[in-house]
Design a protein that fits this description.
Length: about 250
């Protein structure tokens, strides 16, 4: 479904010069709604749950028994370059893919919805209209399948990150490699988060507005977490020989 937005951009007539100008010379505004969405976009890009999820997943990758358990980087006296290279490739590819898809979603919806005066998306039923140029009447079905697919992808990430945060705070077992009896607290939190998320779909709330609010909250919460991360990665005692270089610290 995500690639359908890319297809839309190459299917409909788009003023290329205007798109390029808007891409590289964006129109900056101090309007409340503009700044609100900027924070929301940052919140979806540097969501706090991603920090915990990826860190915990990297630990699980190193503990896996596919070949032999790998030691934590911190206690290695030498080496570790292979692990860092794998993490770098994984993160870079994911980051590039997500940003390219996000760009084409913005492009497709701007040309199909905003271009025809539709500036308010109230429900998930309104959003598929951006796919109508290539999917026709099947746009809603295509969008629905995409929502279900991304939902199934999001359950282990969103609910799993909550499970990692809470269980690691209390020192409980927290790994997707364990079965339920071995990590009762971990799986209970994942189950509870999933049920709560499912139940919210039945509340009399505007789902699109709720998503924006969530993204804004993420953008605000991410700031102190990023600050703490910068303090940790620049700390020689905590990071050892993997201490972040000053350039990375300042950019962070």
């Amino acid at each position: 479904m995500l690639f359908a937005y890319v297809a839309v951009a190459f299917t409909i007539q788009i003023p290329v010069s205007q798109v390029l100008h808007g891409t590289f010379v964006p129109k900056i505004s101090l309007d409340h709604d503009y700044l609100w969405l900027v924070v929301a976009v940052l919140g979806t890009t540097i969501s706090p749950y991603l920090f915990f999820w990826q860190a915990s997943q990297e630990v699980e990758e190193m503990r896996t028994k596919r070949a032999r358990p790998r030691l934590p980087l911190k206690i290695l006296t030498r080496g570790g370059g292979g692990e860092l290279a794998r993490i770098t490739i994984d993160t870079t590819v994911g980051m590039m893919f997500s940003n390219v898809i996000a760009y084409f979603i913005i492009l497709a919806t701007a040309a199909t919805l905003n271009g025809h005066g539709i500036t308010r998306i109230q429900t998930a039923a309104d959003a598929p209209e951006a796919l109508r140029p290539i999917a026709g009447d099947a746009a809603f079905l295509l969008f629905a399948l995409g929502i279900v697919g991304t939902g199934l992808l999001a359950i282990p990430v969103l609910a799993g990150s909550a499970g990692y945060v809470v269980t690691e705070l209390f020192g409980w077992p927290s790994t997707l490699e364990a079965n339920f009896p071995q990590a009762v607290g971990f799986y209970t939190i994942i189950l509870a988060a999933t049920v709560i998320g499912f139940a919210m779909g039945f509340l009399p709330l505007n789902p699109i507005q709720l998503l924006v609010w969530t993204a804004v909250i993420n953008g605000i919460v991410a700031m102190p977490i990023m600050a703490m991360m910068m303090l940790i990665v620049t700390n020689k005692t905590a990071m050892g020989r993997f201490q972040a270089r000053p350039a990375f610290a300042w950019s962070g």
